[in-house]
Amino acid sequence: MASYSQTHKYKGDPLRRIQTTSGKIAISIPLMLVTLMVLIPFVWMIIMSFRTTGDILNNPFGLPKTLDFENYRRLLFDPEIGFGRYFLNSIVVCSGALVVSLSLSTLGGYGFGRSRYKFKFRGWVFNLLLFSLMLPPQIFYIPQFTMLSRLGLLNTYWSLILIYAATALPVSTYLMSTYFSQLPSELEDASQIDGCSHWQTFLHVMLPLARPAILTVILLNFMNFWNELLLAITLITDPKMRTIQAAMMMFVGEHGADYSIAASSLVLSMLPTLILYLIMSDKLIEGLTAGAVKG
Predict the structure, then answer these.
(1) Torsions phi, psi for 118 (to 5 deg)
(2) Can you give the pTM of this predicted structure?
(3) Which one of 128, 214, 286, 295 is separated from 29 by 20 to 30 angstroms, measured CA to CA?
(4) Could you read off the pLDDT of 32-43 as tens digits, one per residue?
């Protein structure tokens, strides 16, 4: 219906129609170029995962002669590589960090987002939380390493779980508080009239309504946790405790490189984030734009 009205509107004005078409082309061409820039390395990596390292060195941009899954078989089932162990380590670390960060950010976001919960220095604490978003995380690495070393948590899952959760708390709390702030206060009043406590109101009424924001926090934090490398190689030096990102560094080193296995590991490592994004992509936009049109 909209396309018909636009066509009818511009039917007697060829110049306006040409300008509209030119504008669409001017926007579409840069977007297509950017898309190609993103997709070409992605496709090239998948193609490399089906080739041997010798073929890659002889012709880096060539196509595989046959669709051979030998690289994936070696990666998944070769005990010398132990890729499954690294994959499990990443799952444990990401799951633990998600539970900690989500639990604290939903509680903090609810307290900051609802105006009825007033406490001393509320504004100062929230501003300090926002200020921490501007600080580069690298400045905390040495103090974090020293603190975890004194606590005896190096080379444990807890070292990464606690640091990952702490780094994710500011932005997670901000997103949750923004979403909670736009929920109508009548819901809280009605639940308390029905006899609900503050905790029951949060758990059974407000938290289910914040599902888009919760899914957004889960997706953003999971991608950050899963792809993090610097802390993973700093706090974990035990080979058996490596996460998947740290383990992939073994395939390309100073004294040798197995590019085919490296490409296969990259393909497998991106599958969890890709699947999670495809499932939650619609909720991601809704959660990120929460409060943007708040009146």
Answers:
(1) -105, 135
(2) 0.81
(3) 286
(4) 888 888 888 888
